[in-house]
Amino acid sequence: MSSVLVVCGSAPLERLAAARLSRTGMVRAGLVLVSGAFGATAVLRELPGVAAAAVFTVLLTLGQMLVLPATRALLPNLVDERRLGLFTGALASLSGLAVLAAGAPVGALLDLGGAVPWLVLGAVPLLALGCVPRGGERGERGAGSGAAAAAGVRSAPSRTNGAERGRHGGRGQGA
Fold first, then answer.
1. For residue 135, what pLDDT band results from cuts at 50, 70 and 90?
2. Distance, CA of 157 to CA of 163 (rounded, Å)
3. What is this structure's pTM?
């Protein structure tokens, strides 16, 4: 089910979200959906059949479909262009390590049974909301450095600016 959602829904969801939300807004909305997946499972887990699992899968997948591309799209605004490859690789590697390291503790937590472990897991993405840069809601809609600028993060220099610095002794054009 998750694969079908990703294959068939990624592009339409990203277009819809980009038309209505900034990239940071997409990250926030995705984190809320991921949290909602755990919260819904806490409430629906006693239902017979696969309803709880289906709701969990759909909400978790939709949340990830918003968070992951928006996070990758924000990365160039947060790091120097010359180090973009390094930070892109680090983001992917750390994401994988987090999944690997969390497996056993999450499994042990869920082994306790009941709704509380699901609610605890649902709190984690809500806590992550505090790490999402503020601002960028106006005018940034799916693009550019608005979120980084609003958050006070300096954007990486563009290729054009770097070339201009080289031609003008490091001063930039018109400096």
1. low
2. 10
3. 0.73
Residue count (the chain): 175
Q: What is the CA radius of gyration of the chain?
A: 20
CB 23 within 8 A of CB 136: yes
- CB 71, CB 27: distance < 8 Å: yes
- In the chain, alpha helices (H): 2-20, 23-44, 51-78, 84-111, 116-128, 146-150, 159-167
Kindly compute the dihedral angle of the four CA atoms of residues 139, 145, 147, 153, in this order, to the nearest 10 degrees. -150
For residue 28, what are its two tokens? 């926030």
- If DSSP codes are grouped into helix, strand and coil, which group holds residue 155? coil
pLDDT digits (tens, 9 = 90+) for 110-123: 999 999 999 999 99
Q: HEC profile for 45-81?
A: CCCCCCHHHHHHHHHHHHHHHHHHHHHHHHHHHHCCH
Q: Using an 8 Å Cβ cutoff, are 43 and 122 in contact?
A: no
Among candidate residues 53, 51, 63, the one with its CA nearest the CA of residue 10: 63
Q: Which residue has the tokens 């563009």?
A: 158
Calculate the CA dihedral of residues 56, 136, 93, 41 and round it to 10 degrees: -10
* Distance from C-alpha of 5 to C-alpha of 14, rounded to nearest angstrom: 12
